[in-house]
Write a structure and sequence with these properties.
Belongs to the barstar family. This protein has a domain of about 90 residues: Barstar-like (Barnase, Chain D, 2-Layer Sandwich), CATH 3.30.370. Helix content is about 30%, strand content about 20%. The protein is built from three helices and five strands; from the N terminus they run E-E-E-H-H-E-H-E. The longest helix has 19 residues.
Length: about 140
């Protein structure tokens, strides 16, 4: 039996995004606030299941303690500004190539949530990058 929280996210389940005020002290260019991009880098090499993924992703986003570990809550946190790391932001995941196939498939669903949030006005992105070698650290 599939868990309810693992269903694909539908547009009807989402809240409309609200506009966020610029960060205090943001640089301005021609009267428009320029907010620096926050980059959250996650190392997936130690992930064995979804719990590992959600633990690191929610911690990286600065999600509140009551934030759910599911796709609907992720979308809400991205578009409604519920996380302490506010857009514009990019999450970079390194080392995903060696994850179990089921976890890779789930990451594609998480990427779809980021894409939907971006399409709905949130300045967010999810990228997969190669892990740093031990020599480069």
């Amino acid at each position: 039996m599939r868990s309810v929280r693992d269903r694909p996210v539908t547009r009807l389940q989402r809240r409309a995004p609200r506009s966020l005020p610029p960060r205090p002290g943001a640089a301005r260019h021609h009267g428009v606030a320029r907010v620096p991009l926050s980059v959250i880098r996650l190392d997936a090499r130690g992930w064995h299941d979804r719990d590992d993924l959600w633990r690191d992703l929610l911690a990286g986003l600065g999600a509140p303690g009551w934030h759910g570990a599911n796709l609907d809550a992720l979308y809400d946190g991205l578009v409604a500004g519920e996380n302490s790391v506010r857009p514009p932001l990019a999450v970079e995941i390194a080392g995903a190539a060696r994850l179990p196939a089921a976890l890779v498939a789930y990451l594609t669903r998480i990427r779809a949530v980021f894409d939907d949030a971006a399409r709905d006005g949130a300045a967010v992105a999810l990228r997969f990058v190669a892990p740093l070698s031990a020599a480069a650290r």
